[in-house]
């Protein structure tokens, strides 16, 4: 039996011949009557189509949120082949999401926040400070204490 050339190709994986962004869905939620949602409505009218064309891998949803402040929600998840409990989407969201308030942001600021969500992995932010170093062995000189030090002479 002969092998076809198409059967010999490897599949693209993250970091190998292709980059697969972790974000799967952007949800814009705003109120039609509140003045704080006006910049969000302006952004959606002017910039949603170019944003969707530039990011075909992201599902963009626009929802009305009555009498609430505007937000954008990024839902993250890795693509999987099995459709477990998420039968409506081939990309199940595994509980990772980020919510950013769009209150008092101009359309350019909203674009920056959307870019932040698009570039993010969805992982929790970890503090840069590391834990203090704890030794598993005792110091050869012992533990220093001010009670054991000789008193200074004046």
Could you give the topology of this structure?
Blueprint: E1 13-14, E2 17-18, E3 23-30, H1 38-54, E4 59-64, E5 71-76, E6 96-101, H2 107-119
Parallel strand pairs: 1-2, 3-4
Antiparallel strand pairs: 3-5, 5-6
Write a concise synopsis of the structure shown.
The protein is of the alpha/beta class and 154 residues long. The protein has helices at 38-54, 107-119, and strands at 13-14, 17-18, 23-30, 59-64, 71-76, 96-101.
Structure write-up:
- By secondary structure, this protein is of the alpha/beta class.
- 19% of the residues lie in helices and 19% in strands.
- It contains 2 helices and 6 strands.
- The chain has helices spanning 38-54, 107-119, and strands spanning 13-14, 17-18, 23-30, 59-64, 71-76, 96-101.
- It has a 4-stranded mixed beta sheet, with helices on one face. Strands 1-2 form a two-stranded parallel sheet.
- Helix 1 (38-54) links the parallel strand 3 (23-30) and strand 4.
- Helix 1 crosses helix 2 (107-119).
């Amino acid at each position: 039996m002969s092998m076809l050339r198409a059967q010999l190709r490897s599949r693209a994986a993250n970091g190998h011949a292709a980059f697969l962004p972790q974000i799967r869905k952007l949800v814009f939620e705003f109120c039609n009557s509140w003045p704080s949602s006006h910049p969000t409505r302006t952004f959606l009218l002017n910039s949603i189509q170019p944003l969707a064309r530039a990011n075909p891998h992201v599902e963009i949803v626009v929802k009305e949120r009555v009498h609430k402040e505007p937000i954008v929600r990024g839902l993250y998840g890795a693509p999987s082949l099995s459709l477990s409990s998420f039968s409506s989407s081939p990309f199940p969201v595994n509980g990772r999401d980020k919510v950013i308030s769009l209150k008092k942001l101009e359309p350019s600021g909203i674009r920056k926040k959307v870019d932040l969500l698009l570039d993010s992995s969805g992982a929790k932010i970890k503090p840069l400070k590391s834990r203090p170093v704890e030794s598993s062995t005792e110091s050869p000189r012992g533990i220093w204490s001010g009670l054991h030090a000789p008193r200074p002479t004046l």
